[in-house]
Specification:
By secondary structure, this protein is an alpha/beta fold. The chain contains ten helices and eleven strands. Helix 2 crosses helix 3. It is globular. The chain starts with a helix and ends in a 5-residue tail after the last helix.
């Protein structure tokens, strides 16, 4: 009847699947069994954890606290099991802004790190910078490499470098053969962007306005960086990406960087870590990112 990982796993499933019935289906249990374990957890903690409002499960203040702690405990359990089964050392979870879901990030940073640290397991998760920062705070990620648009004050944010806004088109696109391209020509060709209702759009639009473009110039909205890259390679429009200095020149076989007739803006990129509890492996990965992104050769 006490506190155990199985009860916590059931509780987390109820929260994340937004109800007892959906959690039961996800876990392969009866709804009665799910309800029994959640109520057992409430009795043990002597606090209500969930309540129903408008036919939806809502967390109480105690439930919010238990949910955050349970996520950390279950995450640590999974990492421990992976490390033991694979014979690895510590397993790390790195978050990276979706802006870095590109070839240079793997060839310049991730592949050399794994080659130099074969005993360290690594999980890599791409996402929006703010969400990744929050995942570090909730112990769902160990650290995050993000665009520094908005980071919670409770976390340590360390600026590392800048990344320049770069416009890409398919190699067969008419603009790819131009020696100089103007902003009106880019607008006429149409931008390939993330959906305009995405959480980071407000920040991305500020960058567009610095160039002289707006949301009205978006001709094709696509979810996912790699899908947008494929759309640009297919000649469907102009894609704006952020490229740091260590990325080097664009070498994609079917993409071409546009020579715009003006300077393009930059954004700040940094590392998000928690203010305490960093292990030696966490520090080693953070140091590797610092050295690689600054242009130094990692040992």
């Amino acid at each position: 009847m006490g506190l155990d990982l199985f009860k916590l796993r059931v509780f987390v499933a109820v929260v994340e699947h937004k109800g007892f019935s959906a959690a039961a289906e996800h876990l392969g249990l009866s709804q009665g069994t799910v309800s029994f374990h959640v109520h057992s957890l409430e009795r043990h903690l002597e606090k209500p954890l969930v309540r129903y409002e408008h036919r939806a499960v809502r967390l109480t203040d105690a439930g919010e606290q238990v949910y955050r702690s349970a996520r950390r405990m279950l995450h640590d359990e999974q990492r421990l099991m992976r490390s033991i089964r694979r014979g690895h050392g510590e397993h790390l979870t790195l978050g990276a802004s979706i802006a870095f879901e590109q070839d240079y990030f793997f060839t310049a940073l991730i592949a050399p790190y794994l080659k130099a640290n074969p005993q360290t397991g690594l999980s890599l998760r791409f996402g929006h910078s703010l969400g990744l920062a929050e995942a570090v705070a909730d112990h769902r990620l160990d650290l995050a490499y993000v665009i520094g648009w908005q980071v919670p004050a409770s976390l340590r944010y360390e600026p590392l470098h800048t990344a320049r806004f770069t416009l890409l088109v398919g190699s067969d696109h008419s603009l790819a053969r131009r020696e100089t391209v103007t902003v009106p020509e880019v607008a006429e060709a149409g931008l390939i962007t993330a959906p305009l209702d995405e959480v980071e759009w407000v920040h991305y639009e500020k960058v567009l306005r610095e160039v002289g473009l707006t949301a009205e110039d978006s001709a094709l909205e696509i979810d996912g960086m790699q899908a947008r890259v494929l759309a640009a390679a297919a000649g469907l429009g102009v894609l704006g990406v952020f490229r740091p200095d260590y990325a080097g020149a664009v070498t994609h076989p079917t993409l071409h960087s546009l020579p715009l007739d003006r300077d393009l803006p930059t954004v700040e990129v940094g590392l998000v870590t928690r203010r305490a509890d960093a292990s030696d492996s966490h520090q080693a990965l953070a140091d590797w990112i610092r050295r690689t992104t600054s242009g130094e050769h990692a040992p």
